[in-house]
Design brief:
The chain is α/β, with parallel strands linked by helices. The protein has two domains: about 210 residues, Spore Coat Polysaccharide Biosynthesis Protein SpsA, Chain A; about 70 residues. The protein has an eight-stranded mixed beta sheet with strand order 7-5-6-4-1-2-3-8, with helices on both faces. α1 links the parallel β1 and β2. It is elongated, with a radius of gyration of 25 Å. About 30% of the residues are buried. The structure holds uridine-5'-diphosphate and magnesium ion. Magnesium ion binds next to loops. Uridine-5'-diphosphate binds next to β1 and α3.
Length: about 300
C-alpha cells in the first residue's frame, strides 16, 4: 500500500480540485492507496471538507492538530500515522503534479528507496524566490553535511525503511528536507516543471523562508560557530602586528599622536564583530534550550477515519 501525505493549512479553496485530481490519478494505478491529511490548525472550513471526504471514502484519514504547528510538524505527523509500504508527501495546492506518482512507484519497484522529484523548471516561482533559493542551497551545501539536493521539495516517494529511520528523529527544530537527506538510502531523481498554485495563496512569505533557512543551516552545521575561531585568530594576529608597529614607532620617533579616528574605528569594528558572534552563540544556545525541553513535535486533537 502507498500512503499519500498531505499537510493542509487553510486550503479550503484548493482542496476540492486536489481531491478530485488525486482520486483520479490513483484510480489509474493498480496499487492500494490511503490518503493521510493533516489539518494544521486551519481557521477556515478545511477540516469540514476533509472529514466529509473521510466519511465518504475509507481510504481517507484526517489527523486534526490542536493548533497550527507548521508544515514540518504536519509532515511529521503524517509520517507517524501513515501505514503504507511507501509514502508520498504532496502539497494541497497541486504545485506538485500528481501524474508523477505513477512514475515514482515504477522506480520504487525497480528497487530505489527514495524517488526525488526535482523542479527542473521553476518559472512559476518569482525571480526573487528562485534567486534566494539558489543562494540558500549554495550556502547550506558549502557548510553542511549531508548536502541537500537542489530544487527538490518534500514531494518524493520514500520506502518504509526510510520512514522508520526518520521516525527516530524527534528534534523540535525540524527541517524535513534536511532530515530526508540525512537519512540517505538509494535515491533516484525525476524532473518536473513546478506549477503555479491552483487556488489560495502561499503561506511562506520572505520572513518565514529566511527563518527556515537559518533553521536548516543551524540544524545541520556548526560551521557558523567554528568560523569565529578563525576570524578571531586573524584579527588578533593583525592586532599584534599593529601593536608592534606602534611600539616601534613610539621608540623611534617618540611622537604622541592623538589617534582618535583609528581608536573609534576599532571600537566600532570589534563591537559589531562581538555582537555578531554573541548573536550566533545565542542562536545555538536557544536551540539547545528548546530541544532540552523535549516537547512533542505536535498535538493531535482528533483522528478521523480508521488508522492502524
Ligand atoms: N502548510 C501547512 N502548515 C503551515 C503552512 C503550510 O500544513 O503552517 C501546508 C499547505 O497547506 C500546503 C503546503 O504546506 O499544502 C505547502 O504550502 P504553500 O503552498 O503555502 O508553500 P509554497 O508552495 O509556497 O512553498
Ligand atoms: Mg505551494
Amino acid at each position: 500500500m502507498i500512503s499519500i501525505l498531505c499537510p493542509c493549512y487553510n486550503e479550503e479553496k484548493a482542496l476540492p480540485i486536489f481531491i478530485q485530481r488525486i482520486t483520479e490519478t490513483i484510480s489509474k494505478i493498480p496499487e492500494e492507496f490511503e490518503i493521510v491529511f493533516v489539518n494544521d490548525g486551519s481557521t477556515d472550513s478545511t477540516l469540514d471538507l476533509l472529514t466529509s471526504y473521510s466519511s465518504k471514502d475509507s481510504r481517507v484519514k484526517v489527523v486534526d492538530f490542536s493548533r497550527n504547528f507548521g508544515k514540518e510538524a504536519a509532515l511529521t505527523a503524517a509520517l507517524d500515522y501513515a501505514s503504507g509500504d511507501a509514502v508520498i508527501p504532496i502539497d494541497a495546492d497541486l504545485q506538485d503534479p500528481p501524474e508523477l506518482i505513477a512514475e515514482m512507484i515504477a522506480k520504487w519497484h525497480e528497487g530505489y528507496d527514495v524517488v526525488l522529484a526535482r523542479r527542473a523548471d521553476r518559472s512559476s516561482d518569482s525571480w526573487p524566490k528562485r534567486f534566494t533559493a539558489k543562494m540558500f542551497y549554495k550556502v547550506h551545501n558549502a557548510i553542511s553535511n549531508p548536502h541537500i539536493p537542489e530544487n527538490v521539495g518534500d514531494f518524493r516517494l520514500m520506502d518504509r525503511a526510510v520512514i522508520e529511520a526518520l521516525k527516530q528523529c524527534r528534534e523540535s527544530y525540524r527541517y524535513m528536507k534536511g532530515l530526508f537527506a540525512w537519512a540517505g538510502f538509494r535515491t533516484f531523481t525525476l524532473d518536473y516543471a513546478r506549477r503555479p498554485r491552483t487556488e489560495g495563496t502561499t503561506k511562506f512569505n520572505g520572513w518565514r523562508l529566511w527563518n527556515d533557512a537559518i533553521n536548516s543551516i543551524t540544524s545541520f552545521s556548526i560551521a557558523p560557530l567554528t568560523i569565529w575561531l578563525y576570524v578571531g585568530t586573524l584579527i588578533l594576529s593583525l592586532a599584534f602586528m599593529y601593536l608592534a608597529f606602534i611600539f616601534l614607532r613610539q621608540l623611534i620617533t617618540a611622537q604622541t599622536a592623538p589617534g582618535y579616528a583609528s581608536i573609534v574605528c576599532m571600537i566600532l569594528f570589534f563591537g559589531g564583530l562581538n555582537l555578531i558572534g554573541i548573536g550566533l552563540l545565542g542562536q545555538y544556545l536557544g536551540r539547545t534550550y528548546i530541544e532540552s525541553k523535549q516537547r512533542p513535535v505536535y498535538i493531535v486533537r482528533k483522528v478521523y477515519g480508521d488508522t492502524k
